[in-house]
Amino acid sequence: MQCKAYAYTCDVSNENQVEALADKVYREVGDVDILINNAGVLPGKPLLELTNAQIKKTFAVNSMSHMWMVRQFLPRMLDRGEGHIAAIASVAGILGCSYLVDYWYAFVSSVAYKKF
C-alpha cells in the first residue's frame, strides 16, 4: 500500500485563508480522505489581563477555525460518502482552568459542536 501525506500552512484564524487553503488543496491533491483539526493557542493570562484582540484570536484559532475547516472539507466528503474528520481539543474544554478562561470558553464551544 502506497500513501502520501501533505502538509499546508495557513493562518486558521482567518476564514478567507482557510477557504483559499481548501481551494489549493483540492486543486493540488484532489479529494481529502482525512482532516485533522489541531490548531490552538494559549495566552495563559487571567481574564482581566487579556485584551479583546487576544480573546478574539483565541476564539478564532481554538474554535472558529475548526468549524471553518469542516465547512470547507465536509461537503465533498459527504458527496463521496467517505472521509474522516478528527478534531483535537483540550481537556480544558471539559474541566476548565482558572487562568485560562478564554482558552476554556473557546474549547467549550469547540467540544460542543463536535458532539453533533
From TrEMBL:
One of its GO terms (molecular function) is oxidoreductase activity, acting on the CH-OH group of donors, NAD or NADP as acceptor. The chain crosses the membrane at residues 85-106. The keyword Transmembrane helix applies. Pfam families: adh_short (PF00106). GO terms for cellular component: lipid droplet. SUPFAM superfamilies: NAD(P)-binding Rossmann-fold domains. Gene3D superfamilies: NAD(P)-binding Rossmann-like Domain (3.40.50.720). Keywords: Membrane, Oxidoreductase, Transmembrane, Transmembrane helix. It comes from the Eukaryota. InterPro entries: NAD(P)-bd_dom_sf, SDR_fam. Belongs to the short-chain dehydrogenases/reductases (SDR) family. This is Short-chain dehydrogenase/reductase family 16C member 6. It comes from Araneus ventricosus.
